[in-house]
């Protein structure tokens, strides 16, 4: 089966689910959108993550996976506002974090802020689908609320790359609801999408969210040896991906 044409709901998606997807880009993905609008979306994401305590909860769940690793090296991909990296640095005082994003303006803002000056953090520009780092240079890689930005071929490439450079990859992204419920949610979002950049990107994110079946197909395409464990986490799903490897 051709991974590039896989529906976001996976190869076994229903007729309705296959209609609830789009190739339309979010403001965050577009070069023709002002940095001011992108920063507004990123600030709203940070605010929502703080209100719902997502940053803390994702950090907490991910850090349990490296609880027995001393001075873990952690890579955050698609960091945006950097709040997840801040939570990791606060929860693990012995961790070192490499904070990255593909968007040069967001990376510049991260570097100019507290993370740029943090003694245990390094801010870098990085495309999560072609990671410029040696194999197994990190104990843990994190990718939060960003996986749906990638089309299937790039998403599979990310799974291959992140599990190459890190022993464990944790992806947290929107959970794709059952199609009928998804339709209702999209309809309730629609009126706000025309006026609020955050709602615009939220609507498209929901249409681009991958189902558990799609995650498994992407991992199998990336490398059949990659295992994925998928857990529900509120309105999100947490995917833990790794390749079998000898201990370091
Ligand atoms: C919706 S924001 C999520 C920001 C943050 N991780 C959070 O949890 O709120 C998606 C982020 O992924 C970044 N991104 C998109 N494609 C990427 C890629 N190929 N490599 C690295 N970052 C990427 C975007 O620039 C953006 O900062």
Instruction: Tell me the radius of gyration.
Output: 17 Å
Largest sheet: 7 strands, mixed
Hetero groups? S-adenosylmethionine
> How does the overall form come out from the CA principal axes?
globular
The number of helices is 10
* Order of helical and strand elements: HHHEHEHHEEHEHHHEE
Oligomeric form: single chain
Number-wise, the strands total 7
Q: What structural category characterises the helix and strand content?
A: alpha/beta
The percent range for helix content is 40-55%
- Percentage of residues in DSSP E strands: 15-25%
What is the terminal separation in angstroms? 36 Å
- Please tell me the overall pLDDT: 96
Question: Short description, anyone?
Answer:
This protein is of the alpha/beta class and 248 residues long. It is built from ten helices and seven strands. α3 (54-64) crosses α4 (83-91), α7 (152-165) crosses α10 and α8 (179-193) packs antiparallel against α9.
């Amino acid at each position: 089966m051709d991974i590039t044409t896989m529906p976001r709901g996976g190869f076994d998606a229903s007729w309705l689910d296959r209609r609830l997807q789009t190739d339309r880009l979010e403001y965050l993905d577009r070069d023709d959108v002002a940095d001011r609008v992108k920063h507004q979306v990123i600030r709203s994401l940070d605010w929502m993550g703080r209100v719902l305590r997502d940053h803390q909860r994702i950090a907490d769940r991910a850090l349990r996976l490296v609880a027995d690793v001393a001075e873990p090296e952690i890579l955050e991909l698609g960091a945006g506002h950097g709040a997840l990296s801040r939570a990791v640095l606060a929860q693990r005082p012995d961790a070192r974090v490499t904070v990255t994003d593909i968007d040069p303006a967001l990376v510049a803002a991260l570097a100019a802020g507290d993370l740029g000056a943090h003694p245990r953090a390094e801010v870098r520009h990085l495309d999560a689908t072609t990671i410029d780092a040696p194999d197994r240079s990190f104990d843990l890689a994190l990718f939060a609320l960003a996986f749906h930005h990638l089309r299937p071929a790039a998403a599979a490439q990310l799974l291959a790359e992140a599990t190459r450079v890190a022993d464990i990859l944790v992806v947290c992204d929107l959970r794709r609801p059952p199609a009928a419920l998804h339709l209702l949610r999209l309809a309730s979002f629609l009126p706000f999408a025309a006026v609020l950049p955050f709602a615009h990107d939220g609507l498209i994110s929901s249409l681009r969210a991958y189902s558990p079946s799609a995650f498994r197909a992407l991992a199998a395409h990336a490398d059949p040896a990659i295992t994925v464990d998928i857990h529900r986490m509120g309105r999100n799903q947490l995917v833990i991906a790794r390749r079998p490897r000898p201990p370091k």
